[in-house]
Amino acid sequence: MSSQRVSGTAVQRTIAVLGSAVFFVVAPCTLAGLVPWSITGWQLRPPFLGLELTRGIGAIMILAGVPGLVDAFARFALQGLGTPAPIAPTRNLVVTGLYRYVRNPIYVAVVAIILGQAVLMGDWRLIVYGALLWLAFHVFVVAYEEPTLERTFGREYEAFRAAVPRWIPRMTPWRPAGPTSSHTARPPGLRKSRHSWLARSATERGRPRRFR
Asked: What is the per-residue pLDDT for 153?
């Protein structure tokens, strides 16, 4: 039984990795790469405020956003056993890595990469594009994503949402109450049966034995 469970988890993880890789190319690479290129041609314009220093700030934003984006995708696949795509969501609620600081690190990273390109190239059009994209993310998160996660994970997600901000990262990492790296939604019947078994075991341990 345990070997079958391990094998099944390995298959799920493999499928999740492949699905996340495909979605990474389709979504973030398009939104933060192809679209900015189509707008700017990646041509440098005069720097914002006439300061070349601003280009360095833009480069830092890009260099911070890319690894954060990759890390968040990897955690969705390896720990959540799913993808960021709504059609193939995670089985587990991921609350490790950057998720300890902000609830939506993928969206934050994508917008940071876009704004970083805007500052690096001195192009205001990318500022407008990044702002509009963030607004679309916000509407999607509030209208669909958060209610879906609340229905799926219940109190575990409610605790996560109450402690970790939606957009502005915390200064210190949030640590969930349970000693686990990611939370799995368990059916209520399974939790109830497990608690009943523990109660019966405790009662039997406290009951005196009769020897014949």
From this structure: 96
CA distance 120 to 142: 31
pLDDT digits (tens, 9 = 90+) for 4-51: 555 668 888 899 899 999 999 999 999 999 999 999 999 999 999 999
The number of folded domains in the chain is: 1
Backbone angles phi, psi at 184, to 5 degrees: -110, 130
Please tell me the total number of residues recorded for the chain in this structure: 212
> What residues make up the domain containing 64?
2-185
Q: What is the model's pTM?
A: 0.80
DSSP 91: S
Q: Give the number of other Cβ atoms within 10 Å of residue 205's Cβ.
A: 7
Query: What crossing angle do the helices spanning 53-78 and 105-121 adopt, rounded to 10°?
Result: 160
Q: If DSSP codes are grouped into helix, strand and coil, which group holds residue 51? A: coil
Kindly tell me if the per-residue pLDDT of 178 is higher than 70. no
Residue 209 lies in a domain: no
What is the residue-averaged pLDDT of the chain? 86
* Phi, psi dihedrals of residue 182, rounded to the nearest 5°: -150, 150
* Joined tokens for residue 169: 């990262």
**Residue 122, exposed/middle/buried by CB under 10 A (0-12, 13-18, 19+)?**
buried
CATH number assigned to the domain comprising residue 178: 1.20.120.1630
- Residue 29 within any structural domain of the chain: yes
Residue 56's pLDDT band (cuts 50, 70, 90): very high
